[in-house]
């Protein structure tokens, strides 16, 4: 990647196949300086990520609480949520392709933010079936685009060398935004009304759009944001996917992250359900803390992860991530006291921080030469979604058929399998050559 | 941050049978909007449907004391509407309607001479989404479904209990006789149980033995 940026003949790992053209050198044929984005742009990106997380937070489990209060049947609620989940899963790859194809990441992100804001507003104003359905689809589609877009803007802004630190900051601001939004929405739902919570989420789009347009457009290099020039410049999505499939570290990483989500996605709901069962007075506070607590830990921890990923490499942190997951599963299986459950849930912050930084980082590392950075993110996001969906069904089945400790141990076992895979198969993806 | 995990879990537990899915698609075609029971009773199509159930109107002369928990109403017409097999377009009027006799209840002859009842909409409410409070006033969750037995008698309500912002809530079953509807205040119902008694209830699973907490003899 670094040689390519410096112009001249790029080093190639394998001889070019027939019919493939050599990637073009940089436009001016000169050495490109490493990017120096202004402080304004960096701060603006921070706040954009913060406000965006604010808007997105409301669309989790809170929607079902809200719809119940609006006198929806459980079947209808289930249908709307399923559709949202399916769109969020299936739309990952097209979303990544869209961001790859776009010339201006900012406009793509702006469109996504506006879509999420509109869907929050629609939910608040008119909770009838057709509108809620459309709102969920819109929001799921927008989030498929926004995830890659943020990483692409970051990459375009700071380049390959400092992307690790930048992603650490992104994760920190996103988790603080998420925690603040959860608290804010909970408070407004309690003190004002459920509608107010969604209006609050919708109103966060305005500061988000403001922050987005403070990012100076000339500082985002679109080529860099896509991860370099694509060899299939006007190729379609399938050609891009096929070229990504040949990158072995990417496949291994996608598998590992899917395993992680397989273990992780159902842990919080199941543990929260245990807390509700076992604690009388403070159940709500315990569950609230187990949602917000890990967010705080992510906020504190992810800049550190960003720095260490540069220093130590990516693998040690991946190992840490999976180890925290496995330990958490085992603790959940054996702890009875709901307060201890809440403390164990804080380990979610550790894994969450590590993954929030490492996923876009490793994808950037391995897809750097292909120009399909965002498509790769979409593909990994798809794997994550599949893992998450299987996880909740499987955990539900296990805890019904056997009991909850067994379900937790099974998830811990998946975590251990992931750990073994990382240990044995996952290569270190930190770029070794120095970018100037 | 609450992930789609919790929602996915609900999905797979609620979309149980193929029959429900088909009924749901029918309901989608009708756009499933809730209407007040009063408008429904005035709708001729609804009246014809109701008469097809061979339902006598609720008897105004049989008052039940308002303070006691609403006894399962004598009119069998109310129950089939609460059954899960009801087309989703028709809402379920709560049995409380039968327990509060008023001069407003009057039988009215429709043009097609079908028996129908017109009840003041202010007296009625849909039971879905009603908040349930414990005997000490704490919020227990909301009613999400009603359980009826084969004879059409309402047995229990399913309550989405606990959790924060939707994470960690469980569906528990509370005996209908433990629920007290307040005649003055809509949207709220009192359960004769404390939070501790409710939280140990097992989760509701269809087609398995259902544990209904509470009952007429329950003491908080």
Can you describe what's shown?
The complex is a heterodimer of chains A (436) and B (220). Chain A is mainly α. In chain A, 76% of the residues lie in helices and 0% in strands. Chain A contains 19 helices and no strands. In chain A, α12 packs antiparallel against α19. The longest helix of chain A has 63 residues, at 129-191. With 220 residues, chain B is α+β, with helices and mostly antiparallel strands. Chain B contains 7 helices and 9 strands, in the order ααααααββββββββαβ. In chain B, β5 and β6 (170-175) form a beta hairpin. Chains A and B meet through α3, α4, α7, α13 and α14 of A and α1, α2, β4 and α7 of B.
Query: Which range does the strand content of chain A fall in?
Result: under 5%
Q: What's the pLDDT, averaged over the residues of chain B? A: 64
pLDDT < 50 runs, ≥5 residues of chain A? 1-32
The major pleated sheet of chain B works out as:
7 strands, mixed
Structural class of chain B: alpha+beta
Helix-strand topology string of chain B = HHHHHHEEEEEEEEHE
Ends distance of chain A: 12 Å
Q: Give the tally of β-strands of chain A.
A: 0
Largest interface here, residues on each chain? Answer: A-B, 60 and 46 residues
Q: Helicity of chain A, in percent? A: over 70%
Distance linking N and C termini of chain B:
36 Å
Q: Total strand count of chain B, please?
A: 9
Alpha plus pi helix count of chain A: 19
